[in-house]
Amino acid sequence: MTISKSTKNRTVAVLAGTGIAAALAVAGAGLASAGTVPVTHPGEPTVAMTLTNHTDRTEWLAGANPGTGQWVQAPHLSLAPGASETIVSNAPSSPYETVFVNYRVGAFGPTATYNIENVRGDVNTDMTGLSGGHYFIDAHIDTGYPNVNVGYDLW
Fold first, then answer.
1. Contact 130, 113 (CB under 8 A)
2. Can you tell me the distance from the alpha carbon of 71 to that of 109, in angstroms, rounded to the nearest whole number?
3. Which residue segments constitute the domains of the chain, with CATH numbers given?
4. How far apart are CA 121 and CA 136, in angstroms?
């Protein structure tokens, strides 16, 4: 039995299309989980904070506050060496949002404070820092008010 050239081409096109669709679905799913914040009121402040621990010590949650907002994805109790997490909050009833997340570096180490102030005209990480020790935090704001995405790297 011989298969015509056009049937072969159609089969290859269908398989290629299916593969491309699957790849886009997987890529889209990854993007959605890395900073998409549910908005219940257009223009409401939202925050997606990605924390990465580049140290050799586990970070232990010491406290967290979504400010005038609410957690969509709260911080984990610990953040292992080399791990990342994305913390998400929104503030449907406020024109601003200030989020604090504090982790202790190691069992008895300094406290790392991750902060983002999401205010029209002044999105900043000014209160981010460490209570001591030889570590440092590199913070970078990727998108501005009202839907802020910010990354923090603890070294």
1. yes
2. 27
3. 46-154 (2.60.270.50)
4. 27
Distance CA 88, CA 75 (A): 8
How is the beta sheet containing 84-90 ordered, strand by strand? 70-73, 84-90, 46-53, 147-154, 137-143
Nearest of 88, 84, 103, 66 to residue 149 by alpha carbon: 88
Handedness of CA 10, 12, 13, 19 (dihedral sign): positive
Q: Which of 106, 94, 151, 155 is nearest to 125 (CA)?
A: 151
- Would you say the C-alpha torsion 88, 94, 96, 98 has a positive or negative sign? negative
56-93 confidence digits (pLDDT tens): 999 999 999 999 999 999 999 999 999 999 999 999 99
pLDDT of residue 88: 98
Whole-model pTM?
0.76
What would the pLDDT profile of 114-127 be if each residue is shown by its tens digit? Answer: 999 999 999 999 99
The secondary structure of residue 82, as a DSSP letter, is T
Q: Are 114 and 66 in contact (CB under 8 A)?
A: no
